[in-house]
Amino acid sequence: MARGSRYQRYEGGDPLAPPVDLAEALDAIGEDVMAGYSPERAMREYLRRGDADRRGLDDLARRIAERRRELLDRHDLDGTLREVQELLEQAVLAERGQLARDVDMDDGDRALRELQLDNLPPSPAAAVSELSSYEWASSEARETFEQIKDLLGRELLEQRFAGMKQAFEGATEEDRAAIAAMLADLNELLEKHARGEDTPEDFAAFMAKHGDFFPEGPRDVDELIDALAQRAAAAQRMMNSMTPEQRAELMELSQQAFGSPALMDQLARLDGNLQGLRPGEDWSGSEQFGDGEGLGLGDGTGVLQDIAELDALAEQLQQSYNGARLDDIDLDALTRQLGDEAAVDARTLSEIERALRSSGYLQRGSDGQLRLSPKAMRQLGRALLRDAAERLSGRQGARELQAGGGSADATGGTREWAFGDTEPWDLPRTVLNAVRREVASGGRAPGARGVRLEIADVEVVESEQRTQAAVALLVDTSFSMAMDGRWVPMKRTALALHQLISTRFRGDRLELIGFGRLAETLAIEELTGLDAIWQKGTNLHHGLLLAQRHFRRHPGMQPVLLVVTDGEPTAHLESSGDVWFEYPPHPVTLARTVSELDGTTRMGAQTTFFRLGEDPGLARFLDALAKRAGGRVIAPELDDLGAAVVGSYLGDRASRSPYGGSGSGGAGETFGRWGGGWGRGGWVG
């Protein structure tokens, strides 16, 4: 093995698992942003929920709460008292047996002893105190009684130093002297530290002498104090959780620990030093335990430490404090309480949070608020466009559109010439076809010069029609869209269409127009982050005015009008610029809207209405508008809205091609239900 190699415990999950993929996280965050959440809150909600592959913070917090409840319900705090009572009964029973068997004992002495045993107080602490000066006739009873003192000493030590109960079972006088020396030196070190007089050498000397008592290996005096204070505070909370009677019994019994009150004095001194050095620990709390298995002092302190650790984890998982980050989660503590898988889930969530913040998907604006960056918008748009593509892929009749003319772009492929083609020839392929044909037919003599072309040899450069369009997507932003759950699908639709045009049809010009009580043009970032507008009014009239302005800015392009709405027009602009609103729709509002639609029709706009909902009045109105404008009405399911709009746009492009249109098998018939089609292949990527 190479010198210097080091091994440590593996802390990851499946080593063959793929790296963290932000696509699913970004999709979920984008959905919440479009629903009105801030990006920061949307990210928090995603981390809280988790996803199909990993548990979120809520699930981890739920398991923490269940673990805490289980610890409290499964235990009570009188374990030490029960054990003392059992040992006491064993000692008294053994002594009574010895008194009955000892025929040489003076009858008066026997009677006195039996009377003393008969009149022992019911309190275990008082009984132990009274029997501490009793002269045992039975050696077995004496040994059992000494076990009570030994047990109490080990339990008291276990409260402050984990593992002491087992380590000092059957402690000798020498062991007890070592414990007393350690406690005295420890208190001296802590008091010196409190005065600011200790040095690293003092700590090193203490650990060299008493390091066996601290297997966790603290590196300095502060780590030592932290560990001791946490355990001592848990011990105090355990005492606080007892009934007054239990506390009184244990306090009285503790004076019998190891048969020496000096131990209790040293421990009380230690508790005082630790409280002074770490006043921020919870020294006054308590818990309500159940009626389950009895806990001794040491085990009970350990449970209280576990509960404190669980409480700290719950706060870390809640992430409700200022500056909270998932890096704050104590993964070692989470492993101890819930196991390795929980720690792996938390670590993965932390990596996702860190990656989202560092990958450029979230940007902090001039106002200090996080926003989805253009990079995130593109990623989200690709996902939405891919979803639209999957929905479109089930439709029948799609085929690529191949067209010529000066506005066509080469695809990189070639095809056999057909009558009417005007594309340029691919000369290398054409000549190669002729040579191959002559060689295959045996008609080409060795050394012959020149080649004879035939029509079947000719291949032309394949191209795609690039008729440019000025596209106006009008989306209803009225009260009913938000109320009926159509707000997010509307935004998804706009983002998918924006992604398609900005990446695949860059020559087209898209204008996003939201129309509620008023209409306004919106950048894609503004529309994506637009909060639900709880204001009544559907001003399609104003939206059409803005659409015409967009068409006039691009006079050489084909106008395309796409309108997504769930209600009849209930508002219009007056000549003064004021808004007229009335419900049900006023005849003047309808007339103004129809007049502006006529204006877009005169500009040659190809018009499609996307009707949401089942309002029969809206259906009749849009059917009339479509008939008047020579357009069409599509009534998709809400989940199909994005695919319907994208499919309609692509179908419009196909119909603008000299080889598209509504002929049999043409791209214009690709999606009969939506009245549109692709017009080209492979547009998602």
TrEMBL record:
Record-given protein name: Uncharacterized protein with von Willebrand factor type A (VWA) domain
Domain of life: Bacteria
Positions of the VWFA domain: 468-650
Region feature Disordered, mapped onto this chain: 395-420
